[in-house]
User: Fold this.
Amino acid sequence: MNNKKQLNQVKYSILDLATVREGSTAADSFHNSLQLALQAEAAGFSRYWFAEHHNMPNVASTATAVLIGYVAGNTTKIRVGSGGIMLPNHAPLIVAEQFGTLASLYPGRIDLGLGRAPGSDQLTSRAIRGLNINAHYNFPDDIRQLQRFFSAENSNSALRAFPAEGLEVPIWVLGSSTDSAHLAAAMGLPYAFASHFAPAELMNAIKIYRAEFKPSQYLDKPYVLACVNVIAAATDQEAARLATSLQQLFIGVITGRRKLLQPPVDDMSQIWDDATEHMVNQMLYYSFFGSQETVKAGLEAFVNATQVDEIMATAHIYDPEARLNSYRLFAELFNAPVPQHA
Assistant:
């Protein structure tokens, strides 16, 4: 059987952290996010997700539900959601109320991706969760409680979530390890993997998810979304230079010395040593930098190796215009005519 898959058979989407650039503000980042979302909607992207992180000066997507409302309120078709809400940071009732409100305002357009990580360091996690510091152990039960709050059957319960009750808000399980694969499969939910920073377990997690998947009222067959880093430009050299901003960002992740998104540089050898370079490249294993032709070849190989249903691209590019152009080039790869077979 030929399992070769074309890019135009795969959905394409965007993950945004509302990254704050050196010399700019969070307000600038929000404006740039909306401009990108408007372009994405016109270019046929399926969804635009924001990720919850905390205590990071270069990430402004902390109030994730608020940003989802901002983008959904200024677009008309594209799905907008979370990639994800870190559920142990929140009471399921509050998440249901927030996303029920969003789904009421923008029906049929809101996604709720859920993760179990803190989205920050342990100090910040304690500040968010207080005495509930081990809330991640309740992740499966918290998802089930959310499902109950969204269900019409919960109308007879003493504890109800308004205006969420009876609304269809798709829930996704997010993950960066095999634990999430087992859970998404058991619950019959779509699965989104964070291969843009945690590539090591991607193939194994997908295999587990597909092998163990149990059809549910939400999904009749496995659905896999993989997030990857994509930076496209006119030439491989230009894309490689733009990618140095992302590489500098990940140096901050590794060292804990986070900075605002830095301008690209001509020579990374002045910024990292061999050990740091190796660690950054390990984390960025599923990254596609280059001309449109180079990115196409890489993504085609990735799609055929993983058989994913959807690719979500994230791009930490310093120049907003270069970021818009990168996503334009990326989208064109998925809009090629379907080849005719005899």
The two ends are 17 Å apart (CA to CA). Residues 32 and 320 are 7 Å apart (CA to CA).
